[in-house]
Structure formats: structure tokens, C-alpha cells
């Protein structure tokens, strides 16, 4: 039979199947331009194995011909993309989702893009679980954003390389500031310590001025340019405490420069004859004393209304402190007034009232002549209206 060309009109639709065409019988030169369109290609008929490497270039692909439905999952990897082939213009808005970015796999961590001093930024894992993180660190200042930092009881705020300063509130309702190194300095031009409601002051410090101390919001002491000013009193407690005059010059026999006692008050003198006061009564008996350190000055007045029936040496009892028995601590007294006397000659001679050593009483004595060292007055030298005033001083223990 003679060979005759068969046109496409002479071929029945679907008459030529893949089984009728030997392998490699139809090359690209056997196909007319545009003879094979997408409608003539069965779905999935063209696989990667059917396409020679490098045969399909971008010029062979119509615009929008390759859609996502034409690309198998994971078919395009980094090896399939030319360098810099994917630009921001090639990526649709919202096309890169969280699933395409590095991210954490738990509720307490995450990936953050970190600047790298001019080099490519990197994604870093940041642990946001501050409870489990035993050494969290800040990269900058901590802004509380109008909130508070709360610490529970018995947990300290520690400052310094060696926790030199600690601040905390304890479960026993006390608050503490503990400084472990150097000085604890509170610096301000003006400082005031006061109650929690600020209604009462404890201490008020003023720069280039005074410092004031308060008791129950009442100022008791303040510093001034040349010393201190005290409101009300200074009270000393404890043995040997007082005002120290150590900055003054000293005599050669100085044994103390501390003024440790001051006292003033009243005492009741009591006249006795031979230690008794039977039937004795008074119109007046009054005494005053002042003690400065260990030196006591005293005065008294006794005005009898009846001398009573007791007999013996006249002694005045009731001195406010005992007389000190030590060599050099001599004492003395003198009459300031005498009236309503008997045996006047005995009162007109030299009177030497004597304070008893280690006691709190005064012997009423006189010297009548150089031959005696002192004779005691007795009840016979007093009348029922005897009146006397005496002053004296002595050292006490």
C-alpha cells in the first residue's frame, strides 16, 4: 500500500492513545507549535520525571500559570530557588504566617528577632517563665508602668555586688534596713522622720540649719550655732552619768569632771533632847536643801511651842543625806537667828554646831573657854518658845 499522510481530520477523537505510540516516538520536533495545550494534558500526566532538566524556563511559563494548587506540598525547597529570587514584592501581605517563623514550643518561651550589631539579625529564644528562671536578667531599665513591685514577708531587696544593702519586712511586723559594708548614708538637704500619717515628727533635719528632736510632737532639743537648746529638762540615768566638763582646765588634785547629781527640795528638822522628844511641839519646823554633785547646802528654822519633858544633849535630826566620813570632807554650820533663850551666857559664847560623821544629824555645841573642846546644849538652855535658824554645808557619799 502506498503511504499517505493522514491529517488530523482523518483521526477519530481518542483514537490515538498512549499505547499506540512507541516510547520516544513523539519528540518536540514532531509537535506543531501550540499543538499541545493544557486541555490535551490529563491531570498529573506531566510529572517531574517527564520533564528534562532545564527544559522549562520562566519564558515557557505563562503569567499566573503556576498556582499553589499546581505545586505539591514541600515540592519547592531552598535548593529550587535561585539566590535572591524571593523578594518582598513576591510575597503577598499576610502570606508569611507564624507557622513559617521560628517560635517556641511552650507557654513560657518564645522566639524574638534580635539585632546583631550590623550583622544579620537572629531569632533568639527568650524564657518568660520568671518563676522557674533562677537568674533572670534585664537588658535595660525596669519601668513599672505605674504599678508596684511587691515582696512578701521575710524576703529582702538586696543591692550591691555582695548584697551589701538589704531592705525587708518581717513576719513579726518589723521593717529593716541592713547595711553590711561601709556607712549607711541618707543624703538630702532636709530630712524628717515622722509617723505613718505624717501628723507627728520624731526628728527634723534642716540643711545649713538646726536639727530638732521631738517627744510626742513636742520639740525637746535642737542644735543651734553655738551649742544646743533644751526645752524642759535633761535627765541622767545610771551610775556615774552626768555633765562632763573634761574640756576645762584641771586642778592638780582633780578626781572627777562629771557633774552627776543635782537635787533640791525640803526636809523636816526634828529637835531631840538625849534622843527623845516627849511632849515637844512646834509652831514652825521647815528645812530646804540643794545638792550639787556630792556637796549639800541646807538651812532650817525651828520655832517651838513646847519643849517637852525629855532631857539630854540637844540634837537636830533629819538631814536629807548622810555626812561623808572621809579626810578633808569637812562640814560646818552656823546660826542665822536665835530668840527666846535661857542661860543666855551659853548662847553668847562661840557656837560650834557639829555634824555627826556618817549620820544625818547636828549636835548643838558651844565653846565657853579655851580649856574645853565644846560643850553640848541641853534642854535647860531652851524655852518653850525657842526660835532658831541655821545654815550649813557638808559633803555626802
Summary of the model, kept short:
This protein has one helix at about 345-350, and strands spanning about 110-115, 120-125, 155-160, 165-170, 175-180, 190-195, 200-205, 210-215, 220-225, 225-230, 245, 260, 260-265, 270-275, 280-290, 295-305, 315, 330-340, 350, 355, 360-365, 365, 375, 380-395. The protein has about 400 residues and is mainly β.
State the end-to-end CA separation.
164 Å
Total beta strands = 24
Mean pLDDT: 85
Name the helicity range: under 10%
Order of helices and strands: EEEEEEEEEEEEEEEEEEHEEEEEE
Find the structural class using helix and strand composition.
Answer: mainly beta
Oligomer: single chain
The amount of beta strand, in percent, is: 25-35%
**Poorly predicted segments:** none
Q: What Rg do the Cα atoms give?
A: 59 Å
Largest sheet strand order: 6-7-8-9-10
